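Input chain follows. Return structure tokens only.
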Amino acid sequence: MYRIIAPYLLNEDSFEYIISQIPTSLDSLNKLTIDLANLDFIDPYGMVGVLELGKYLKNQGIELELNLPKVEVLSYILRLDFFKFVPSIFGECKLPITKVPQRIESDVLLEITPVEKSLDIHDIITKVRKRARSILKKHLNYDEEAVDNFTVALSEICQNIPEHSQSTGLVAIQKYFYEKRLKKNVVKIAVMDLGIGIKGSLDKKLASIFKEKWSDKVAIQQALFKGVSRYDEPGRGHGLTKVRQLVEKWKGKITIRSGVAKVGIIPPWETEKIPAESLTYFPGAQISIILPAIL
């Protein structure tokens, strides 16, 4: 059975290593294991990424198996409702853990939440806004105006999934303490879908303008820095741009991966560089946002 092996730390940066292991041709592949046994740490981006990778491979007709991580990691991913989504993708998993953490509403995280039909988006956005507001105010010291501006923009990003991607998606949020790099709290936000991607969404509007220069990278740049949307209605398509402006103001980090490209804003405290193009193809859009506390 073909095996995709997770690294010790699975986050936005090392997700590239995970998807680089996807076989070039999936036609002759019947079974595949995603092996999480090496994991010592996984963040919301890593968890949502594993689920979206599983959905992508299952959609190719591949039978999947999930090799579980150690108990310490299991306890954490249970808190974020990771296993709520596992059976429909990987089949039933027998957990080697007897005491499942009690699921209570938390002010330090938003459990992995599906973003699906437009009719349900109000309830989803209400949940995202409520939890993001709590984390930003209580743990990151953002003022009311900052919280309002950011949660509205984040809500629009979630709204983009049923409206723009023609697919469903997942969102998750978690507060951490960055001991080595910042010595203060940060919030990590992951939003992903397996839809048509940013380039696919903007093809009709921009492909004829950019012609041979039209690419995943250019499409992301247009959405992130120019506020371009597939729709022409006033006020549409500014969610990503607004978030980017706020992230820059607060010296945070945002990256968007779509197709074979990744574009973003990197703060001074971040050591990783963003790979721009010629990445392993992965469908849809994968968004990572990290906001630091205001002291």
